[in-house]
Design a protein that fits this description.
The chain has 263 residues and is an alpha+beta fold. Helix content is 39%, strand content 16%. The protein starts with 11 loop residues before the first helix and ends in a 10-residue tail after the last helix.
C-alpha cells in the first residue's frame, strides 16, 4: 500500500481491483451466453474482437445440431443416440472407418479424411498376389462394402481416382520399365472396372492411373519398407472440391510427397 504525503494510506489499489472484478464478471457472463453456441452469436463475438476482419467462419454447420453431443468420429449424437452428420460425405467416411475397424483391417486398409476428400490406402496383399493383377476374393469383398457406401452418396462425389503402385524389387536396381508400368496400371484398372460394373456412380467420375515404382511412401532398403510401397489408393473427392495435386494429398496423408524417397 502506498502512503499519502500526509502519512495516510492511499486507496488507489481499490480502483484497479474493482476494474479486475468487473472484467472477470463480464468474462463469465460471456461464457454463459455462448454455452449453447449458435452461428449468429459466434459471428457477433468474433466481429466485436476484430471489426475490420472479413467473413467469419461458422464453428457449427447446423444451429439445430449444436444441441447434441459430439461423437468421436465427428458426427453429432442427437437425443435418441442417433449419429447426425454435417453431410453425406462425412457419413461416408464414418461408415468406411467403422467397417475397417470392425473387420480388423486396420493393418491393411487406412482411411483418412481431408478437406473435401477421403483418402483410402489398401496394402497390396488385400487385392493382389505378387506380380498379379487378378483381384483376390478378399479384395472383392472389401470393394463390395466400399461400393455399397458410395452408392448412397454418389451425388456428393465429384471424382474417384484409383492409383496403382509397385515397389522396386531390389534396393539398388530399378524395375524393368514395361512390366513395372503395366502391372501398376492394370491393378488400378482392375479395381476401377470392378467398381464400374457395380453401377454405383457415373463412369466419367472414375479415373485410374498407374505410377509404377515412382511414387514411394517408404524406402526400398528393406523387405518391410518395400512392401509398404505396393499398394492401391483411392481418392474420393467432393463434387464442389478443388482437386489437389498428388503431392498435396501425400503431404497431408503420409507427411511426404514421395519424391524425396526415389533413388
Amino acid at each position: 500500500m502506498k502512503k499519502k504525503r500526509g502519512g495516510g494510506i492511499s486507496n488507489d489499489w481499490m480502483n484497479t481491483y474493482s476494474d479486475l472484478v468487473t472484467l472477470l464478471l463480464c468474462f463469465f457472463i460471456l461464457l454463459y451466453s455462448i454455452s449453447s453456441v449458435d452461428s449468429a452469436k459466434w459471428k457477433m463475438i468474433v466481429k466485436s474482437f476484430n471489426p475490420s476482419g472479413g467473413e467469419v467462419s461458422q464453428i457449427v454447420e447446423d444451429a439445430e445440431a449444436s444441441n447434441g453431443t459430439y461423437d468421436v468420429e465427428g458426427g453429432i449424437l442427437d437425443e435418441g443416440g442417433e449419429i447426425q452428420f454435417a453431410d453425406d460425405f462425412d457419413e461416408m467416411y464414418y461408415k468406411l472407418s467403422k467397417y475397417v475397424e470392425m473387420n480388423g483391417l486396420s493393418a491393411d486398409v487406412e482411411v483418412t479424411k481431408g478437406d473435401g476428400y477421403t483418402f483410402i490406402t489398401f496394402r497390396n496383399n488385400i487385392f493382389f498376389d505378387g506380380d498379379s493383377y487378378v483381384l483376390k476374393q478378399e479384395g472383392k469383398d472389401v470393394l463390395d462394402q466400399l461400393c455399397n457406401v458410395i452408392d448412397n452418396v454418389d451425388d456428393s462425389i465429384g471424382e474417384i481416382q484409383i492409383l496403382g503402385h509397385t515397389s522396386q524389387a531390389s534396393p539398388t536396381e530399378k524395375n524393368e520399365v514395361v512390366s513395372d508400368r503395366f502391372l501398376s496400371s492394370n491393378r488400378a484398372s482392375e479395381v476401377l472396372v470392378y467398381m464400374q460394373k457395380k453401377n454405383i456412380i457415373e463412369p466419367v467420375k472414375l479415373v485410374s492411373i498407374g505410377f509404377g515404382q515412382f511414387r514411394p511412401i517408404s524406402s526400398f532398403e528393406t523387405r518391410e519398407s518395400r512392401a509398404k510401397n505396393r499398394r492401391v489408393e483411392i481418392i474420393i473427392s467432393k463434387n464442389d472440391n478443388v482437386v489437389k495435386s498428388l503431392d498435396n494429398y501425400y503431404n497431408e496423408v503420409y507427411g511426404t510427397s514421395g519424391s524425396e524417397l526415389q533413388n
